[in-house]
Every structure is written in C-alpha cells, then in structure tokens.
Amino acid sequence: MPLQFPETPDRDPSRDLDPRFVFDFRAYDELRDPAQRWSTWLDVEPLMRGPEPRPAWVVTSQGAVDTELGILKTGKEADVFLLERTDPHEPQAGVVMAAKRYRDTTHRSFHRAAAYAEGRTTKRSRDTRALKRKSTWGRAVAAGEWAAAEWTALKRLWELGVPVPYPVQIDGSEILMEWITHDGETAPRLAQTRPPSPLLAHYYEQLVGVVTTLAVAGVAHGDLSAYNILAAGDRLVVIDLPQVVDLAGNAQGLDFLLRDCTNICTWFRARGLEVDEQELFAQVTAQAF
Q: Rounded to 5, what percent of the chain is helix, strand, coil?
C-alpha cells in the first residue's frame, strides 16, 4: 500500500522573502532607432541635475529612452533640439524637453565673449592656457565653459524665482531644460508679438522685476532683449543665459546692466509705452546697491 501524506495548502514562496531583496524587474527592448538613446539622467553626477524640489514632469527612470524630435532653433553658439524622454513602460509620463547643444571645436563665435567672461575663473591651469592659445582643446574647453556658465545661471536664477526654463541636467556641452510652450506650441519670442496696451504694461513690469532680482543678486543678463524672452501667454520667460555677468567682478558689469535696461525700454517705447532706460537703470541700481 503506498504511503499517504497529509495535504498542505499551496504556499507562495515570495512571502518568506526579505522585502529588502525584492525588486520589480522589467525587461526593455534594445534600441535600434538611430534617433534614440538611453536616458542620460543617471550618467551624470547629482550636481549636474536640476535643483530640488524638481517639477513632477521630470523623468528619472533608468529605463527611459531619449528620442530626437527635430531641431527647434539654430543660433550663433548653439542649436536647440526637441527631445522626448519616456519610459516605454510608462508612456503617459513622458515629457518633451529642449536640448541646447553648444557647437563643437570648429565653431566659436560668441560675440564679445572676452568681455562677458571677465571675472570668471577656470580651475585647471591646462585649460586656462589652452583657452588663451585658442587651441583645438581650448575651443573644446570653451564650448564646455559656456554650457557650464549657462547651466549655473539657470540653476541660480530658478532658485531665485526668476522666470527661466527649469534646468533638467547638463552633460558635457548639452543642457536639457524645460520646453516653454503656449497652447501646445513653442512659445514665441517677445519680438514676434504685438501685445495690447494692458498686456504690454504687464510684460514691462515683469521684466523690471527680472532685472531688479538679477541686480540684487549681483548679476546682469548681459544681452537681454525681446529676442531672448519668450511670451507664454501673459507670462514672460527669459532664455539664453551663457553670458550672465557679475556686476562686481566684471569691470563692464554696470555697462551691461544699462544695456539691458536700454534694450528693454527701446522695445517697449517703440510700442507706445512711455518708459525711460535711465530711470529704470537708476531704479534698479538703487535697489541693488
């Protein structure tokens, strides 16, 4: 007669596992599209990621994929592309960002670059010598230096509450940042708009606040104009910040601040708003100093 054993209920072996050693494993397909890459979020150091608290839309998944969507803008120093970052397992949480890429060693055409960079320091003596010689390595360092300068400015201004795109991360000479939109499209530059009188005055007050906040923090945009300000509805957003100058460390700092005031007032005055750059400059410097 065969032996008989008492029946035991089925038991889930996972119930006996220490939860510290349990993780959710999800497989991802290999990337075959040349317009795609794995997210570089975890490839960069923590300090190369945006300030906390981060907006909820920032995608930090290790399995996320970056997909090139095309070029958004070309410029003298850098090109801006649209890039979508999405985890294939969570497509509803994907986000489209602006990827600003400073050009390679063959192109260095920053207007008055030396004047903007006065007062800045380069930590490595080799890099400093290369920059002065304008060698191939020096041009590569310059690309990274300007990207780093814009990254630093974006982070600082974001933390000050200045309306700038949220800086997501920097990797070499590429900065990923918030894509500023209005009604689902890229927000136009202020220079492309024709705001009615009430909105025009509202825009001007916003910019007075921007210039004042920067000056109180000891810096000036250095190249502020209607061409590097985006109009997202009734909200303005300042962009293009690699040339931010230190008002104390740069001998021409106040000249750059006055030029910012002049550019702003000239544009608004041409559209019927009675403003004066000298009055704005005096108002800003009085609060800054």
A: 35, 20, 40
